Amino acid sequence: MQHFITIAGNIGVGKSTLVKLLSQKQGWEPVYEAVEENPYLEDFYADMERYSFQSQMFFLSKRLRQHIELQERSGSIIQDRSIYEDAEIFARNLYSQGAMSQRDWDTYHAMYSAMVAVLQPPQLMVYLQASIETLTRQIKHRGRDYEQDIDVNYLTNLNNSYENWIANFSLSPVLIINTDNLDYVQYDSHLESIWKMIEQRLTGRDRLVL
């Protein structure tokens, strides 16, 4: 049976790593976020107000193309971050903080709304939850230069936005996994536990929390 699931969560929570490990474990096709390709990203972290619209429009266009392409594939897919997060978390947070103008937000959100209306949602949204302490530790550990000066308040605002968003997300079933005490890189048992929860959720109806 073909499946399409998405791994969602804040910067540094371990989405890409989990996508890689689960795809290797199950033989599913991984679909990664186009982070390194964004020509605005380094400038965005240096000056969010100036480059927020450009950076978010880049992500939105990439995510739309990616989503359309994966809908046409025949095998099971595990996606790293969704188009919904691009808009409802990152772009909306920039707008609410005053880093994106009303005009830019209206243009962006109109484009996003038109896209979502015609896209197939994933069968399961897996939300990786983590504390700010966990996120900052993992961001430092992976060592991306442009991420090392991310403001803790920015991460906190994103975390709050994620919690509000996932509590109201209704396009797909949701599985919430708190990762503060998980290390699925080092411990196979942790990875296996996550996979069993995903497998159960794909065949069930109730919202689950690990």
Structure description:
It is a single chain. By secondary structure, the protein is an alpha/beta fold. The protein has a single domain, classed as Rossmann fold. 55% of the residues lie in helices and 12% in strands. The chain has 8 helices and 6 strands. A 6-stranded parallel β-sheet has the order 2-3-1-4-5-6. Strand 5, helix 8 and strand 6 form a beta-alpha-beta unit. Helix 3 packs parallel to helix 5, helix 4 packs antiparallel against helix 5 and helix 4 packs across helix 7.
Which structural traits does this protein have?
210 residues; 8 helices; Rossmann fold; alpha/beta; 55% helix; six-stranded parallel beta sheet; single chain
Concise description?
The chain has 210 residues and is α/β, with parallel strands linked by helices. The chain contains eight helices and six strands; from the N terminus they run E-H-E-H-H-E-H-H-E-H-H-E-H-E. The radius of gyration is 17 Å and the shape is globular.
CATH class designation? Alpha Beta
Number of strands: 6
Largest sheet: 6 strands, parallel
Query: Approximately what portion of the residues adopt beta-strand conformation?
Result: 5-15%
Helix segment count? 8
Structural class: alpha/beta
Instruction: Tell me roughly what share of residues is in helical segments.
Output: 40-55%
Shape: globular
Low-confidence parts: none
Mean pLDDT: 89
Secondary-structure topology with pairs:
Elements: E1 4-9, H1 15-26, E2 29-31, H2 41-46, H3 48-71, E3 77-80, H4 83-96, H5 102-116, E4 124-129, H6 132-142, H7 152-168, E5 174-178, H8 188-203, E6 208-209
Parallel strand pairs: 1-3, 1-4, 2-3, 4-5, 5-6
